[in-house]
């Protein structure tokens, strides 16, 4: 089978012929129909993240090994199953939960494999979906699509799941103002999720008017172009100068993080999600004096993905898929994502 693999960071992915894995026990071989192109794939390709004071945080220091087939947003069809698999059948369309843990750490024991102490995530620590087929370690990581389009469903496994977890952590209530920073694939999904599970007033901040227009179409009540105006002032203006009850920062870099903090009202909650890097200098007395809560959100647990797929089946949310690429075009997909040309999500159709 063919796979687009990172052989060496910062160098083009190479299309390789690799062996087809044989599933054993409760393993499942899935034929990939759609693999979402995520910013995390970019970070892998580039070899890491920008840390504080310009220090580069290498993914290899976190246990990532190359060569590697990236891709953790995977939807496809069951090709073959191990002898212990139950509840699924060959040819069935499924979404893969990629955030696999080692199974015994405290997080894994309470169903939060996404924050495992020794993660084994597909497309990051083991080969993923930029391939014609992918081996899933257990059928317990599969969600039945039941009529959902694989292209739209694929991004639910990361973009959708991350947005869902962040919106739940933000805890916005009816009458609250929820600010979403970043109108990329995550931000656009968060707008829809927030609209479907909260009754909050949704404001979104970005520098791209096209993305802001899409956010408005999907349900955002207010849009703020931070390239053309002061985003903090914009939030204060729509909240009678109090600030927002909750802010989700899907960019989370050295520029957006201080602004996100300054958008909060007393008792406000900041959910930090993006991995764009940098550092944040905190005014320490301000945190207790204003009773802020700062928290991080990283993907989500399997149970949340099941809930999210249910929302998609009810047409409460839809993934915005603006570009489709072949496996041979994997490098073009990453380049377009890096240059900001993708609205919503791009997918690779092997």
From TrEMBL:
CDD domains linked: 6_hydroxyhexanoate_dh_like (cd08240)
Keywords assigned: Metal-binding, NAD, Oxidoreductase, Zinc
Superkingdom, natural source: Archaea
EC number: 1.1.1.1
GO molecular function: adenyl nucleotide binding; alcohol dehydrogenase (NAD+) activity; anion binding; zinc ion binding
Needed co-factor(s): Zn(2+)
SUPFAM superfamilies: GroES-like, NAD(P)-binding Rossmann-fold domains
Database matches in InterPro entries: ADH-like_C, ADH-like_N, ADH_Zn_CS, ER, GroES-like_sf, NAD(P)-bd_dom_sf, Zn_alcohol_dh
GO biological process annotation, one example: protein tetramerization
Family the UniProt entry places it in: Belongs to the zinc-containing alcohol dehydrogenase family.
Name of this chain's protein: NAD-dependent alcohol dehydrogenase
